[in-house]
Specification:
This protein has helices spanning about 1-25, 55-65, 80-90, 100-105, 135-140, 150-160, 180-185, 195-200, 230-250, 250-260, 270-275; strands at about 30-40, 45-50, 50-55, 70-75, 95, 110-125, 145, 170-175, 190-195, 210-215, 220-225. It is of the alpha/beta class and about 280 residues long.
Length: about 280
Amino acid sequence: MKLSRLINRVALTGLTILGLSTIAGPASAATTVRVAAPNGNSPYIINTDHGAGGYYGELLKKIDQDLPQYKFKTTFTSQNAVFAGLQSGKYNVAMSNFWYNKERFNNYYHTRANGLDDLRLVERKNGKKANSLAEVAKKKLTVVPVSTSDARYSLLANYNQQHPNNKINLKGIGDQTTGDALKQVASGKYDVAVYPYAAYKSVQTTAAGKNLTASKSIGLQSSYFLLHKSASNKKLTKAMNKELQKLHDDGYMEKLTKKYLYENTFKLPGAQKAFNAHN
């Protein structure tokens, strides 16, 4: 009889513990974060069978690892669809080379800087040359049209606004991959394209890339994650900011830069001033 009571007690205790565990389980489940990334942006983001790769893909995996309360899941789509989805709340986070843009920073939350880009003029080897945006305008070089949703479009539009007497002939288009844009320089259709150095290097060994060269650096731009504005994403932004600060300070971003971007942008002249300049 005593043995029977003991067995019943043990069984009841086990069920109670199991019940508590079952209740507690969902409360500790990670929150899914929907991340959108544009297609065709190697080596910054690469669509692989194992999720996002490249500079930002590996950076996001590290953030995912260090923030167990969140589970980041990436979807690849067109750049226009990235922003449509971010605006509607379909996506929580947008991931790419998103530089400072006043309108975007007003419309979305943004994190601390998550990288630093070295901008160059990509030109045909035997074509016309320039070493600055001012020279592009002065020499009336033709510029490959830029997607109006691209950070480079804002950069060139801002230049024109600040230099009304020496404007670049800027034309906007829809989505276009880096490879397609640079082919138009290699073929002679346009004189120059404005791209980060790593984007140029990623196509340098292709048939079109062998006919291209890059100018010296024309400037540095910090990039940022953008987030849909909501109460939960405000909390997410704070968590990501803390993590990004750590990954910058402990040298992890610098390590990824050397691995993927063909140079250490954090060691370039003016890097310290340019990094996180708009946060």
